Each structure stands twice: as C-alpha cells, then as structure tokens.
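Running low. Got one?
___
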Amino acid sequence: MKAIAVVAAVLGFAAAVPACAAGYPDKPIKMLVGFLPGGGTDVTARLLATKLSEKLGQSVIVENRPGAGGMIATAAVARSAPDGYTMLMASAADAAQHLMHKDLSYDLLKDFAPVSLVVTVPFALAAKPTLPVNDVAELVELARAHPGELRYASSGMGSAAHLSNELFNTMAKVRIVHIPYKGVAEGVTAVASNQIDMVFASFPSVMALAAARKVKLLAVSTPYRTAVMPDLPTVAESGLPGYARYGWYGVVMPRNVPSDVVDRMNAAIVSVVGAPDVREAFIKQGLEPKSTTRQEFAGFLKDEVEQATELARASGLEAAR
C-alpha cells in the first residue's frame, strides 16, 4: 500500500508540472525583432540567438517584423501562446509607446514576463558628412541659427533615438525636426546619403560608416566615454552639460508563460551574456553586456517607463498622440 501511495504521489507531482516546462525547449524558439536587420536590436538578437541555440540545444530563430517603432513585433509577442516558444528582443522604444498611442493593444508592464536585460546601448550622435559642424557646441549654434530647418532621424515615435533627440532639443533649446523611419538602419542610411542631418544611433549601426567617412560622429550620449571609442567625447562634455541618455535591449515573453520556463531562459541568457567571448563580441559592437535576474529586469522596466513618461511630458510629446 505504501508503494502504491508513493507511486500515486509521484504521478500526481508529475501531472502538476506544465508539459511545456518539463522538456523545454523541445522545438525551435522564435525571437522577434521590431526593426530592420542591421540595427542594434537586430545585431544583439542575432548574437544572443546564436549562442542560446548552442546553450539550449534548440534553434533560436530571429524574425524581423519592422514597423511602427517596434510595435508590430511587440504586439505579436503579446498575442502569442504563453508556451515559451515566442519571445521579443525588447528595446527602450517599448517603454514609451503607451505615451505615443492611445489605442496601444498591450501594456509593457502587465502583458509580458520579463526574462533578462541583455545589454545597455550608448548612442553615437552621427551627422551627415556635409553638415558644417564638428562638435555638439557647433551643432547647437547651427540649430539655434536655423530653427526648424535641421532634421533628425529615428526608428519611430517613442523610440530611444526619438527620445534622445527630444531631450537634446529640450536641453539645448533648439527645434530639430523629427523624421521617423521603420528602423534605425534606414535612418542612418539617410544621414550617410546627406538626406537627413543627424541621428542618435547605436554604435553597431554607425561604426562602419564612420570608418568609411560616410558619417561623422560628434559625441556619445552616455555620461561616460565608451570603451569602443574612448576618444569620442560625451554630449555633456562637448557642449550640453548634464545630457545623458542610453538605450537597452532585453528579452521578454508573453505573460502567463510558466515560471520555470522563464527561469530556464533567464539562466541560459545569464550564462551566455556572461561568457567572455560573448562579452567581448558585444563590447566590440559598442554594446555593454548586462544580464539580470527576472526581478531586476522587472524593476528596470518599471523605472524605464517612468523615466520615458517624464521626458515625454517635459518635451510635449504626450500631447501629440
């Protein structure tokens, strides 16, 4: 009788374990990216996906669904089955979308399970080759002399590039006009071809063009210089004291994914991001590796939403919805 009871207890425990968690993952996983190939989100996703595939023993496939400042991909993940086989490479753009769109179909803080932060992203302030400035101070002077004539690119309304430039506008007391694109790669291309004056973009998006002298880098957006380009001054030290903005990329899944599945993915990401070769690869791309616990990432997202809200209100963006 005792043996029967033990067997029954074991069977009962096994039945209580969600099927998708017991052998997870047992099929390929999709990682959606809301921007075009070539941008920082895509570069981060593809490097992470390659290493996660090796770690998990299943393919992690990056799928680009660009448009609407990343919202198309984010909405698709929010609607997907909560089984752990669809996830999103989220970005700073996701923290501000609720301010730009009244009819947003999802809530970043309520409709997703935070998995882990992956990297933080210093932005390079890149200008078109023919723009007659060589530093931030000269850019501010030019913008003040020609209000509304200069234009900047972004990867969409509410994107990190958008908010970075709006902070620049607010602090410098200038009016540089926003031109949104489907992805930062398109915006950078527009700058390199002299169609748009400037863009705040991740280093992976601009380093090759800067080396080929197709864009000129004026400054880095963080309050500190980056290891990848230590000679590039910060915006704050080169003409706009107190300026500081950066982006980030991290992984989320739909809400209601079993907790142990999220734990499994978190452990895999932390392991991959912490590997010396992966850290070196990210740093070479101008990205700063930074994995977290699930709880730390949840707190980080809450802080990001609050900061984006404050910036949008201060610059009048919220009223433009």
About this structure: The longest strand covers residues 112-121. Confidence is low (pLDDT under 50) at residues 1-19. The domain at 2-120+247-320 is CATH 3.40.190.150 (D-Maltodextrin-Binding Protein; domain 2).
